[in-house]
Structure formats: C-alpha cells, structure tokens
Amino acid sequence: MKRKIHLPDIVGKHYKEFWHFKGRYRVCKGSRASKKSKTAALWFIYNLMKHPESNLLVCRKEFNTLKNSCFTELKWAINRLGVKYFWEVKQSPLEMTYKPTGQKIYFRGLDDPEKITSIAVEVGTLCWGWLEEAYQVQDEADFDMLDECLRGYLPEGLFYQWTFTFNPWNEHSWIKKRFFDIGEGETVIETLDKGIVKQFYDDEIGEAIQTLAITTNFLMNEFIDNQTLATFKQMKIRNPRHYKVAGLGDWGVVEGNIFDMFTEENTYNRDFVKTGMRYIAIDYGTVNPMVFLDIWDEGEAVYVAKEFYYDSRKTGKQKTDSEYATELKKFLGDMSNNNYPVYVVIDPSAASFKLEVRKLGIRVKDADNGVLDGIRHLSNLFEMKKVFVHEDCKNTIAELESYAWDEKAAKVGREQPIKDNDHTCDALRYFAKTIINPRRWRYGPE
C-alpha cells in the first residue's frame, strides 16, 4: 500500500542542510519551539522506512525521561507522515518496530550503560543514533561510550550518524568545544547561514569525519502558534539575556541567579479565586528542611499560595515521618467538598514518608528528580505564565532570589546549582515537570 505525500509541506522549511547531511555528527542547538526535535523525528521515521537495513538508537541521560520526550515525538512523526499502520509501538519494553521489515528503534538511558553496549539488532545494522537534550550529558567520556555503538559492517547506501538536539545553556560545554569550535587538524569545508560543516581527515586510515554544527530558533518554525510567538516577544522585553539563549539559540553562560526573572512583582498579598488545578509539591528532608508548597495553576497564572517549611537544625527537634504525614494532612485541609483534582508530587527519595502518607489515604506520585531538566522547565514556566508567590511564603521568596549557578563548575563545562538553600526550589522543580506533562491522579483514598 502506497501513500503519496509532499514532504516539504510536512517538514517545512529552514532545515535543508540538516535533512541532507550524511556525515558522522549532525549537531543542532536551538531555542525552544525551533522544531529541531520534531524535524529529527520526521527524518528518522522517513529514512528508516526508506532504508530497509537501518536501525536507530535513541538516548537521553536518564531512561525515564525518554517516554515523554523522544518516544512521544517519534509517535507524533509516525502520525504526521500517515504511516501508523506500518509501525508497532510498544511501551514495555520501550520500542518501535517497522512491521514490513522488522527494523527497530531502541531506547536507552546513559544511567544503564550495560543495556547500551549490549544492543544487538535483528535486521540490518545499527547505523543511526539520536541524543536528545545532549546538554545533560556533562562528561564527554559518556558520549564516547555511546559513539562506539555505531560501528562494524555497513550495508551499501547507509552511513553512520549521531544526531544531537539540545538547548545551548552552557558555553563551557564540551559539546561546543568538540563540535562547534575548530579544533586541531579540523578544517571548515562549508560555511552556512546557520552554522558550519567541518572535517577531520585521518591520513593513516584515509578517512574523513565530517560534522554539521548548526543553530536554530523559533523564527525558523513556520508552524508556531501565536501564543508562543507572543511569549517570545514578551521574553525579549522582560529578559533580553534569557531571550538570546531560549529564544535565539545563542550559547549561554551558566552564571549568576538562576531565576533572575523573579522580582518583587512576582509576590502578592491578596486572595484569588481558586478554580484551577491544585498541586502539592514536597521536598523531603529529615536533617535538611521538609517543604510542602501549595500551588495553583489558574491557566495564565500560577500561584504559590502557602508553604510549610520545617528545619530541624534550627528548632532542635526532628520530626518523624508519621508526624510529617500528619502535618501534610493538615496542610491539605478539608478535601471532602472539592471537585478539582489535586496532584501531590513528592521527592522520589522519600520512600518511608510515602508509606506514612498513604496510611492517611493520601495519594502521592514520585516527581522526576532531574535537576537540570527541572530548572529548564521552571525557567520556561516563568516565561510562559505569570508566577506569583504569596508574601507569607518567606522561604520560597528568599530561595528564588538567591538560587544561583555554581560558577566554578560552569568553567569546567558542568552545569549545577549551588547546593545551599534550595529546598523550596527543589519542590518547585517537581511541580514544573508535572505541569508540563500532568498525569491524572487525585487526592483521596488509595
């Protein structure tokens, strides 16, 4: 069964070099909404079907982030191309199979290196790899391990290639030095409007390794919606430095205050109509502070309405998990007459506390504890919505105003916040990841 499509209408413009490049490394940094991940997903589905001996390995730093990112993007691409009938999509294990030939898309996380190195394909060869949110891989050696997966016999007409898609948050990253800068023995063989094609030639084996390094941004996405465009325009006015990175795709410098878009204008002292979605975000602490945040999503605005912040180091009295569970019950209040859902998201390390909470009939779900991913989502939230914190939430306000990048770590290519006075920020990270992709659970009996 054949179906004719006009590919430019589906893929759009501005990615011609990306689409046709066949060198070893295809590296694309870009802003949010630059359609880089969607273009990559379309390329992979289209070319897997075109080349019957090809297979794809999709990676992120943490395996549990793949389902709601690359896996979803590839499902979208299958539907966008109108070829759903030809694909078998499994969630356990996470895998996609092109039914006419048996070719596969494999999903792996760098948190389980043995599963990466042990991949054996059933049809053809493993020739392509996709590293999404590549900025999260902070050790170049981790990628070198991945790189070795694409090797061996190569059928005629195929080529080995790694595709990187990521936001350019740290100009000290090894990715910039390796792929965007011109290193020793490398030559620029083509200069593009959006980047370069460079080559390293090994005289001993007579092989040339080519790299495409490009920068994309939301202006290259003709499918972008008006609301997102308005968000970028507002970002350009409110936070020009952040706009250069998140809007235009320029390299950023990881330094200074992380949430520099938080100001006194983000605090409030009035009541608001509580009609939206309610979230309770919990950062667990025994020696460190225990934090509960009561957060309401009202659509265009998010309100941090109240906080519970208990620091046993200051009080001299350490509470038990059972006592904290009772405090959470009080914090939630009477839920018997409320029709809106409540999402209780919790630090995944709090196993014993969760048991006590569930004894009281409160449903909780583990939050995604990816620090950098959470910071990105929370930064994006400040750009997408108005975020207000009640003036009584003194600890939340203080931490948002002081939460900063570790500049020493940044200078050696690592992104990490200073680990101090960050407990409400951790709870906010858990909330931000949940609001981007909420799972429907409610407060109530198990």
Task: Flag low-confidence runs.
Answer: 437-446
* Lateral arrangement of strands in the main beta sheet: 3-4-5-2-6-7-1-10-9-8
Which CATH architecture of the largest domain is right? 3-Layer(aba) Sandwich
Number of domains: 2
Number of helices: 16
Number of strands: 17
- CATH top level label of the largest domain: Alpha Beta
Cα radius of gyration in angstroms: 24 Å
- Average pLDDT figure: 87
Q: What is the CATH third-level topology name of the largest domain?
A: Rossmann fold
Binned, the helix content reads 25-40%
Shape: globular
CATH superfamily of the largest domain: P-loop containing nucleotide triphosphate hydrolases
* Backbone structural class: alpha/beta
Q: Approximately how much beta-strand content do the residues carry?
A: 15-25%
User: Termini, distance in Å?
Assistant: 48 Å
The biggest beta sheet, please? 10 strands, mixed
